[in-house]
Structures are given as C-alpha cells and as structure tokens.
UniProtKB/TrEMBL annotation:
Taxonomic source organism: Microvirga aerophila
A Gene Ontology term for the protein's cellular component: extracellular region
Domain of life according to the entry: Bacteria
InterPro entries reported for this sequence: Cadherin-like_dom (IPR002126), Cadherin-like_sf (IPR015919), Hemolysin-typ_Ca-bd_CS (IPR018511), Hemolysn_Ca-bd (IPR001343), RTX_toxin/Mannuronan_C5-epim (IPR050557), Serralysin-like_metalloprot_C (IPR011049)
GO MF annotation, one: calcium ion binding
Matches recorded under PANTHER family: S-LAYER PROTEIN (PTHR38340:SF1)
Name of the protein in question: Cadherin domain-containing protein
Length: 631
C-alpha cells in the first residue's frame, strides 16, 4: 500500500480545489491491484500527512490530518479503516476528541488482538508547545456489542446497533454519528450506557422482550428522544442531576417503562413536561429529590403519589410543594392559637444548577430554585438581583436573559439573589454564584447594542452587528467583524482576520497590543485588516507593546488609553521599504501593503511585520501618520 497527498486531482467531472489523500494497492510482484482511490470522503479543507498501518485481518487503516474540520483554522486527526477486500469498513472518523489547537502528524501501530493505537501531536493549552496524545481502537466484526472492548461507528444515515446485556464497558467507543439512530437490546438484562468511554449520537433506545434495566447518565440522556421498554417489566435508571443542571425529560417519549429510578442518594432534580412521565419517578427515601413540571399543574392526589414515591419537593405552575410534617403537640405553638404549631419560614433553599455556557441563548435553563416549607405552604419566587440583566426567573427556574452579557473572559462568575416567600408571609433571600463556562472557540453574532465581546484561547469568530462594539480576540487565530457602527477590533495574539465596515457611519479602530519582540514572535501574530479605509478608520497601537524611550517621552503626561487615544507624532511614521531616520518606527510598504514595526527606528535591527492591510477602493492607496494613535 502507498498513500500520498494530491492537489487538484481530476475526479472525472471536475478538479478538486484542495488537497486529498489517495492510495494505491499493489500485488506482491509490484503490479497495481485495482485503481488508485481517494481516502477522505470530505473534500472541504486540505487533507495531508497520511500514514498507513496493516491490520491482522489483512486490511489496513489510513490516518491523516484534516484542516478546518474540528475548528475553522486548525487541523484534526482522522482515520479510515479498510477490509482485506479493499473496501471501506464504516465511515472515516475523527480520532482526536479534544485539543485546544492544532492536531498534527498522526501515526498508527497495530498492537494485537485486532487493536491499534493512533498517536499524534496536540497543541498545548495557550499554544505553549505540543504534547503527544494517543487513542486505542479495537475492530468489532460482530453484529452485536458484547462484553469485549469494542469500537462501533455509525453513518450519517439511519443506523441500528444491537447490544447484549452488559455489552457496554470501559474502553468502548460507540458513536452513531448523524441521522436518526437506534440502540436495541439483543437480550434481557441490564445495560449501563454510562460505562462506555464514549457514547453518543443515538436518538432511540429500545429494550428487549424481557425484563430490562437501562442506566443512563445526564450527557447521554440529552441525546435520546425516545425510550421504549418493549416487553417485560422495565426500569429506566437515571444517574446524575446532583448539583449540576437537572436531568431533563422534557419532550421525551417514554413508553412501556414501569419506573424511572433516581440512582443517586440525594438532591436529584428532574424536569418534565409530561405528568405521566413524572408519576413514574422513584427516589430513595429521605434523599431530598425534586421534580419540576413545566407548563402544567399536578392534582393534590398526584403530588401525594410523588411524595410517597420518594420525591420530596414538587414544583408546578401553581407553586412549590413539600410533604406536610406530622403535628408535634410539644413543639412551638401559634400564639394566636396555643394548640396549633407555629408557622415557620421556608428552609433548605438551593439552586439545582449553577453553571451556564458563555453566550448561551436567551431562555437557556441554568437550574431550578428548590426550597422546603416546614408547614407545607405554597412558595413563590422573585429574582431581586438579576446580575445586571443576565438572568431571569420563570416560575422557579433560573434562565438566561441576555446571552451576550455572558462572556467568560470578562467575568467567569455572577451573583444572583432569589427571594422566596410562603403564603404565611415569611420571606427569605438567598445569594447564588453562577459560573460561566468557557467556549474554547467562540462564535457570536452580536446585538444592536454596544457590545463588548472577548475571545478566549481558541480560534474565535466574533461579530459586533450594529452598535459601537469592542471585539477582542484573545489567543488563537481569530476572525473579528465589527460590522455596522464605530467599532474597536483587536485580534490579540495569533494570526487574525479583522474586518470593519465602509463609510462615515463606520469609523473603526483596529487595535494591536501584542509585543513583537522578534521576527519569530511576529510571524506567529501576523494579522490582516481586510477593509481599511484611511478616510474614516484608524489604527490603535498599545504603547506597552509598541514603545521605546522616544515614544515614552512623547506620551508622558498625556494619559494614552483606549478611551483617550493620542495621535502619533508625524516623524514616527514613514511610507517606504525600510526605516531611514532614527525615529522611523512604523513603516508602511505601499508595494506589499504591509505595516512594520522598527523598534530602533534606524533599520539597524530587522523590522517586524505587524499586519497586512487591504485598502478600501476610493479610500486612498496609502497610509499617513494621521491614521495612527497610541492607546
């Protein structure tokens, strides 16, 4: 077998516009065995750096790196398995399941037992060097997953995978891919979905004809939309929902299931939209489990049933209910009625989930406010601190109210205050801290307001939409679009693509604040301004990054800042190929449209590239010192 990278290959109908991986099989005498074939199914982006490994069954595995599949400006690692007959076994699959940047240089090695290991280089967090990662695969020729360690990969069509009781284990990789896919129990017993090392992509779970127990965790639960127990007496056992966001059974079809057991020992919270599904819930005794019915109301009899089944807090559209306590004639009494126990305030107030993804959409659930009233009074809730409009309450559910204010880079936590009131008039206020989880690579479209959006460590795509916005890329190779309004656009570290907009209504400033201490450093941070208009746009230079003794003297006492830009002195700027005077610190080359920084202003030390500028038509063919400001 030989594999290679091919550019512009003719497919019979057209020429490919990017590189692909091709292979050719040869007989023992060196003659070709069949025609060359393309390995990668996806043509978008470049495919390169292939390697090949022969499997024990006479087949082989090809690995390669693929550009733009995992993130817009990064490489990911993919593989394709072939049988001894030369035909593909399943679809190509992504090998790496994480990583903050480039994934490069894959190699595969057979280790016996039908297994192989793929190794590759993975860019470390913050782009500081590379680590070596590995992942093991085992080929499964069986039609049913067994207790062995196996890998099963679906297609983008409709797939059905059968699995024996106990057929999911540590080390199993089960990925149904796209389409509507079915997981079917081939025999009665217990199937623990949480046991697999990776499980995902299935929408329908079907039991066997016998008695089944199906164990599902929070992550896999989100993917399924249907649970059908089929025959026998069946139990759906749910794991998780403690502290983190609730187990969500909303809008799921659950049929021929006799009970839904909450496996954890305390404080599991479940959200449902179907009362009949809620009435299947069973919680351990004294575990403080709770349920929220969205958009409906339980009857008093149904609430009592849930209490008897171990659910100790019931929330619906009419309020929050807990089991009434037994009357203690020796306890505190109501002074207006000495024979009656005194009414007390709500207690055990808690938030079921406290983490939300940054830029999560408006209406995204964060968690439910749960409380106990010792007297069984109905409770109501009010959000008296919304974290400056970031959150809102709907009933007892804390929801996102403004997604664009949830930016991890600006604030990783926010405090909200909830007021709980019972029908006797008792009021209790509680503060909760909500954590904003980081997107490694952020994508946002902005709003009509004046947005401030900061990227993180990945390759972000940030847009400001309307308004006077501030977009900051952070680390990574980012794409920032100010769009309408007077925007400040700063790529930060990495090789960034920067866009403003045209005309007097869009006076944009492009910010550069990364210290370019050497040509090597500068090569990692070359930006492109794609639509600079000298008539209306500006370039902001952070004097902490672009400074020396002369510039410091010029700026002394002026208070240069982002909200107080100071126009550059004319002598600091030159149009030409190189510095000629001792204060020619910033050079714009009209031929290649590149902007350079010369720290000594004399040309003795090599100047380094800041950015390439694509000038708007009708806006001039060069730059002047009037375009530059220190901040």
């Amino acid at each position: 077998m030989v594999t290679w990278t091919s550019y512009g290959q003719y497919t019979g109908t057209e020429y490919e516009t990017s590189t692909s991986i091709y292979q050719q099989r040869f007989n023992a005498d060196g003659t070709p065995n069949g025609a060359e074939t393309r390995v990668n199914a996806t043509l978008a982006g470049n495919q390169q750096n292939s390697s090949i490994m022969v499997t024990q069954d006479g087949g082989w595995v090809v690995t390669w790196q693929s550009f733009g599949r995992d993130a817009p400006f990064n490489y990911a690692i993919f593989q394709q398995r072939y049988g001894a007959n030369g035909l593909p076994v399943g679809d190509e699959m992504q090998v790496n399941v994480g990583g903050y940047g480039e994934q490069l240089a894959p190699q595969a090695l057979a280790i016996g037992g039908g297994s192989w290991i793929v190794t590759w280089e993975s860019q470390a967090v913050f782009g500081q060097g590379y680590n070596i990662h590995q992942r093991q695969f085992t080929a499964s020729s069986a039609e049913v997953l067994t207790s062995a360690v196996e890998t099963a990969t679906g297609t983008d069509g409709t797939d059905t995978l059968s699995v024996n009781a106990g057929g999911l284990n540590a080390g199993d990789i089960v990925d149904a891919k796209g389409g509507r896919d079915f997981l079917v129990m081939a025999e009665a017993g217990t199937l623990d979905v949480t046991a697999a090392s990776f499980f995902g992509g299935f929408e329908v779970m079907r039991g066997s004809s016998g008695d089944d127990t199906i164990v599902v965790g929070k992550t896999a639960l989100g993917g399924f939309d249907t649970f059908d127990g089929q025959g026998g007496t069946n139990v759906l056992r749910l794991v998780g929902g403690i502290g983190a966001q609730a187990l969500n059974l909303s809008n799921k079809t659950i049929v021929r299931v006799n009970a839904i057991e909450l496996a954890d020992t305390e404080r599991t919270h479940v959200v449902v939209t179907d009362k009949e599904v809620a009435l299947l819930l069973r919680g351990p005794s004294s575990s403080k489990d709770s349920v929220t019915l969205s958009g409906g109301t339980f009857t008093a009899e149904q609430r009592t049933q849930l209490f008897n089944q171990g659910i100790e807090t019931v929330n619906d559209a009419s309020g929050t209910y807990t089991p009434p306590p037994p009357t203690d004639p020796k306890g505190p009494t109501d002074p207006t009625d000495p024979g009656r126990p005194a009414n007390t305030a709500p207690s055990d107030i808690r938030l079921s989930g406290w983490t939300v993804q940054e830029l999560a959409g408006t209406g995204t659930p964060v968690g439910s406010i749960l409380a106990t009233d010792p007297d069984g009074d109905r409770l109501s809730y009010e959000l008296i601190n919304t974290a400056e409009g970031r959150f809102k309450l709907a009933g007892n559910q804390l929801l996102v109210d403004n997604s664009f204010k949830l930016d991890h880079e600006q604030a990783s936590t926010h405090t909200v205050t909830v007021r709980v009131r019972d029908t006797a008039g008792h009021v209790v206020d509680e503060n909760y801290t909500v954590t904003v989880a980081d997107w490694v690579s952020e994508v946002t479209t902005g709003t009509a307001g004046n947005d401030v959006i900061k990227g993180g460590y990945g390759n972000d795509r940030l847009s400001g939409k309307a308004g006077n916005d501030c977009l900051f890329g952070g680390v990574g190779h980012d794409t920032l679009r100010g769009e309408a309004g007077n925007d400040i656009v700063g790529g930060g570290e990495g090789r960034d693509q920067l866009y403003g907009s045209r005309g007097a209504g869009s006076r944009d400033a492009f910010l550069f604040d990364t210290r370019l201490t050497s040509k090597t450093v500068a090569n990692r941070h070359k930006d492109v301004i794609n639509d600079f208009g000298s008539r209306y746009d500006s370039i902001y230079l952070d004097d902490a990054a672009f400074g020396n003794a002369t510039i410091a003297r010029f700026l002394r006492g002026k208070g240069a800042a982002l909200d107080k830009p100071i126009k550059m002195q004319s002598g600091f700027f030159k149009v030409g190929a190189r510095a000629e005077d001792r204060d020619d610190y910033f050079i714009f080359n009209r031929s290649n449209k590149k902007l350079y920084w010369d720290a000594d202003g004399s040309g003795r030390k090599a100047m380094v590239e800041i950015a390439t500028l694509k000038l708007q038509s009708g806006e001039g063919t060069t730059l002047t010192y009037h375009d530059f400001y220190f901040v």
